[in-house]
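Hi support team,

I've been running sequence recovery on a batch of backbones for a student project. Most finish fine, but this one hangs at about 90% for roughly twenty minutes before it completes. I'm not sure whether the input is malformed or the queue is just slow. I've pasted the structure tokens below so you can try to reproduce it. Let me know if you need the job ID as well.

Thanks,
M.K.
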């Protein structure tokens, strides 16, 4: 892990990569020799996919102050398979001792018809769309699997992300605040808020939630203007700034 400290990685552009590398080497250091060997054999022809959560204000969901890597997919480097079936990937990570995301079975296979498959997908999407941020976090990745071949093994045939309207509009709020930070002095807070309210209302969010979010966005823009907060800080410390904005009473802004 000492290589992380070499001068060529000191530039700010490598900051995220250094954080991930530190966590990865820390995870490797506690694996058993048999787990490390299995991991090396697997990585010879496959790629592991995971995510770093926690310890960052850039997330729109509070994952806590502790940074950690969570793993969720194993992808063959060659061949037609998109990735291993999710249950196979999770079982592998558990076997070697790496932490994973949660896995939920939406509907057991097989689904009899294309119409039934479409109905299951539609129900899952609508349920996620209407869910509150605290219930679904940043959303889900759905894997569609199908049995094929003589051995009836599962294969992933498609995958896609599902995000709640609540999450998408919170992300939109961050984007609006970043644009305002970039152009502070040349944009009216009222214009940004009205555009956001129109988007939130068309997405089906309740009137009370839309009003609350719009008020918070207005306060956030005024806070950004008052303290001359750069767009990079809005991006990296969004949740922290959002909490501050809820009680910000300043009125100085275009």
């Amino acid at each position: 892990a000492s290589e992380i400290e070499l001068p060529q990685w000191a530039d700010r552009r490598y900051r995220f990569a250094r954080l991930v590398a530190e966590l990865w080497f820390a995870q490797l250091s506690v694996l058993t020799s048999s787990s490390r060997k299995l991991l090396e054999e697997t990585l010879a022809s496959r790629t592991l996919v995971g995510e770093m959560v926690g310890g960052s204000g850039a997330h729109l969901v509070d994952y806590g102050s502790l940074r950690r890597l969570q793993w969720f997919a194993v992808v063959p480097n060659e061949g037609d398979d998109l990735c291993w079936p999710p249950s196979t990937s999770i079982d592998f990570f558990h076997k070697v001792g790496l932490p994973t995301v949660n896995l939920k079975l939406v509907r057991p296979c097989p689904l009899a018809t294309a119409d039934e498959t479409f109905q299951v997908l539609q129900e899952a999407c609508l349920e996620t769309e209407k869910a509150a941020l605290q219930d679904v976090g940043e959303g889900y990745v759905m894997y569609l699997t199908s049995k094929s071949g003589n051995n009836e093994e599962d294969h992933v045939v498609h995958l896609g992300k599902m995000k709640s309207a609540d999450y998408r509009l919170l992300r939109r709020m961050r984007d609006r605040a970043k644009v305002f930070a970039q152009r502070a002095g040349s944009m009216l807070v009222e214009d940004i808020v009205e555009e956001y309210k129109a988007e939130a209302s068309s997405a089906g969010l309740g009137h009370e939630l839309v009003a609350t979010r719009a008020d918070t966005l207005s306060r956030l823009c005024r806070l950004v203007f008052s303290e001359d907060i750069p767009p990079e800080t809005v991006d990296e410390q969004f949740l922290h700034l959002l909490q501050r904005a809820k009680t910000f009473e300043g009125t100085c802004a275009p």
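--
Follow-up from support: It reproduced on our side and the slowdown came from queue contention, not your input. The longest helix spans residues 207-227. No action needed from you.
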